[in-house]
Amino acid sequence: MPKDSGIGASPKRREDVRFLTGNGNYTDDINLHGQAYAAFARSNVANGKINSVDTSAAEAMPGVLAVFTGEDFVEVGGNPAGWYIESRDGTPMKEPKRPVLAHGKVRHVGDAYAAVIAETYEQARDAVEALEVDIDELPAVASSVAALAEGAPLVHDEIETNLCFDWGWIEDNRAATDEAIKNAPHVTTLELVNNRLVPNAMEPRASTANYNPGTGDYTLYTTSQNPHLTRLLICAFVMGIPENKLTVIAPDVGGGFGSKIYHYGEEALVLAAAKKLGRPVKWTADRSESFLTDAHGRDHVTTIELATETDGTFIAIRTSTLANVGAYLSNFSTCVPTFLHGTLMAGNYAVPNVYVNLKAVITNTAPVDAYRGAGRPEATYSIERVIDKCARELGIDPIAIRRKNFIKPDQFPYTTPVGLQYDTGDYDAVMDKLEEIGDLAGFPARRAESEANGKIRGLGINSYIEACGIAPSNLVGVLGARVGLYDAATVRVNATGTLAVMVGAHSHGQGHETAFPQVVAEMLGIDEGLIEIVHGDTSKIPFGMGTYGSRSLAVCGSAVVRATEKIIKKATKIAAHMMEASEADIEFKDGQFSVTGTDKSVAFGEVAFKAYVPHDFPAEELEPGLEETAFYDPANFTYPAGAYACEVEVDPDTGKVSIERFSAADDFGNIINPMIVDGQVHGGIGQGIGQALLEGCVYDEDGQLLSASYMDYAMPRADDLPFYAVDHSCQTPCTHNPLGVKGCGEAGAIGSPPAVVNAVVDALQSAGKDVTHIDMPLSPGRVWAAMNG
Amino acid sequence: MYNFEYEKPSSVVDAVAALASDEAQALGGGQTLIPTMKQRLASPAKLVSLSGVAEMQGVSADGGLLTVGGAVTHAEVAAQASAYPALARMAGRIGDPAVRNRGTIGGSLANNDPSADYPAAALASAATVVTNAREIAADDFFQGMFDTALDEGEIITSVKFAVPQAASYQKFVQPASRFALVGVFVAKHADGVRVAVTGASEEGVFRWGEAEAALSADFAADAIAGLSLDPSGMIGDLHGTKEYRAHLVGVMTKRAVAAAT
């Protein structure tokens, strides 16, 4: 009998009532008295020297209140990279300044060099068009390969190179890996591109700033996944506003997928404008601005080599990758291709030698940063594609070669050659589950049926591991992180026994308002409906690091547990006093404190009331009130893992791929709300299939964005996707967090692209085509060309 | 979007008069024009909506001729053109429901987007485009990408389709926009087969003469098995090379012949 509340139950998401009835409160829904509007002048060339920006005509336009240019921000700080990386030769990474508004040069199409504030948005846009701008277009570099070519134009003249860093991981592995590959009986090599993606959150970025000249207080409403981080960046690095004078509020946020982790210049601009004008200033991106300026994802060019024995035993993996980081270093752009990518390059496998070389390259394109999965999809894709190719070369079944090399359950905790210690897992059990839910035994019959219908069918297998809840702070600090990676929660019990739980995590689609109360309700034995989650407002919540990297439950959820434990501890003392018993004799179960061996008990709500109406209260031992805060810094990453199977049909006449079956078996450790987990996996697979078949962000060689709207950037639609079979009954709980949870938000996006591509290659091979690889997205034209190449 | 004047005349005469003013622009369903204006890429001084013009409404069939008013939406054609099932089916697959309930046949033909569906239907059906001033044969109407025989201020008031003996439209969609990457309308008339292709050519919609000849001799998919189009005039872009589009024209033509009813 499934539970109907608490941990493991699937109550419907309470936040959906307001979202589905139009009662959400998004940044653009917030309108302040006297509000003015900002519009940005953006570069239409990828690389250009700004000779002059004459604002006089724009300033004279109707309704115009102020015009800002890069000149106005020369004195303030730049938006920093959040992670320091050292090159193999020990030199520091190159860190070009990222100003609020471009000054001197524009460096990508969409780079903002001026902003107009006006009474209305249309007036602001009219005035932007009236700016008299003299920009000399310069030759541009739009890809990592072009940017490293001899004599390539420079994106930032002052750093004298387009190479941000040349990183080796782990440099000490290099010689042994080279040697192992040189001597291996079989080496499979694959060159591949991990296609660049536009994040496409449903809600575009938006920011509204207010400034109170009477108090000097700023308020910023903004589309952020981590309001405290945004506040820290603005205060400590960019604008120098005292942290106590800025409140950042990220209200309802309509999806982030990583793109709303970062601080963007528009936030600083509206703050500066609000102060200058003494009026609230609002900016909401249109969809074109989202395409041009939201931090993009992926964009790796990789060569991977897998050395094996002739029986398929892995000996070594070596990769060489160019990662395009775009024109400026977005906050986590240097961390994603390194510590979220290189460290995962052993996959689920016991492979003794692994060496990763990664060059981060600055180009005249939009900044690139974390996008759902962030580095781990790139690692998984490289490994799982080369394994598939290797299996084919050696004539080994793709499942068998994976099983042969899996890290076995008795090997945990397992330290990989690339610096991670996997705490727990059972990859064979997950693969068993996949074979069952995907009915893989029935594939030959399904293939025959497809062939009878004139289609060619393929089966693609993938197994993945990811590292979630990036931590601990001490370790990441050594590795170059410039922030901590803990999280925080405050549990406030009200006098009448209801609770407010203030969390540092931010929900923008994840269902925290439903899942977090399930945890607290389970611990306190009370109804979930008594518990309210508060998030997104730096004036209300403790300093937390927000939501990304599938960290909310594993990190912030653990802080919630710790804070709730403190509540129980104090409430136990109060209950002992109320029942005139020793604290050691108090038992807490199902919301009741009772004295062991007696029929005396008090309910949790009665204890709460006593805490706030502390008559007859042990005031000499205990403070009144019932409110506790906990900060939680994990001991390690968590390691969700899974196995995915994709079956495709390819139309031999057109190259069109249709996904016929998709099965996902995941090990997320313990599960709080299975329905929400299903939804997270469904969404992740949707994005992964999008990357594999449809989505491609393409710049031409001059740096013009060709896929700049939905006319050319293909998002997955419902009819592109099959019904999924998902299962998360294989559970090896995380060993180091109190809930035993691992995180599920990115898994689908990590596990699905290689499964899809492996399936298409399998289909083409079955039809006798000598195709070993096709770069994503596998559009009909590309598949047809591969078949007929 | 820039400011503009708006008029909604109720007769063709009034519409023509309204369009005579400087920088006036006819507005059908606005499915291309309004997004273009929102992006500030078009700035007509005045929009003249044709949706209220009485003479431009309705779908009627009479003796092998289907007449569709210039302001009739795709959804209306899908629901009402039962006399010409292939046309109704094509109209029912343009865009999405929101597009079909706003977009009009007159707007689509006048815009002559190289990837739109209606131009292929009109050309394959040997349709007659009726305007406020004259009648124009489909063969003379389409003059290249976004270019037609229409004069400034001329309005498509109706379109007359010769209902074929058998017809089918096969569309292979561009994955992002879901416009036709290649769409082929095959229509078998008493005096021969017409094959009209959209989405593929840099010159816009065109008739594939070789296929027409082969199919007029033998209306079977195999009849064009040996034919191929020269890729050189085809569109090549992010979504498909010239060669791919040329190939798809053959595939879609065969499928249209096989599906023709």
TrEMBL record, chain A:
Q: Which PANTHER family match?
A: ALDEHYDE OXIDASE 1-RELATED, XANTHINE DEHYDROGENASE
Q: Which Pfam families match?
A: Ald_Xan_dh_C, MoCoBD_1, MoCoBD_2
Location of the Aldehyde oxidase/xanthine dehydrogenase a/b hammerhead domain: 21-139
Q: State the organism of origin.
A: Parasedimentitalea denitrificans
Q: Does the keyword Protein transport apply?
A: no
InterPro entries in the record: Ald_Oxase/Xan_DH_a/b (IPR000674), Ald_Oxase/Xan_DH_a/b_sf (IPR036856), Ald_Oxase/xanthine_DH-like (IPR016208), AldOxase/xan_DH_MoCoBD1 (IPR008274), AldOxase/xan_DH_MoCoBD2 (IPR046867), AldOxase/xan_DH_Mopterin-bd_sf (IPR037165)
Superkingdom of this protein's organism: Bacteria
- Annotated protein name in UniProt: Carbon monoxide dehydrogenase
Is Iron-sulfur there in the keyword field? no
UniProtKB/TrEMBL annotation, chain B:
SMART domains noted in UniProt:
CO_deh_flav_C (SM01092)
Does the keyword section mention Flavoprotein?
A: yes
Record domain FAD-binding PCMH-type: where: 1-166
Protein's name according to its UniProt entry: Carbon monoxide dehydrogenase
Entry keyword Ion transport:
no
Q: Enumerate the UniProt keywords alphabetically.
A: FAD, Flavoprotein, Oxidoreductase
Read off the lineage from the record. Bacteria, Pseudomonadati, Pseudomonadota, Alphaproteobacteria, Rhodobacterales
State the superkingdom: Bacteria
Q: Which residues form a coiled coil?
A: none
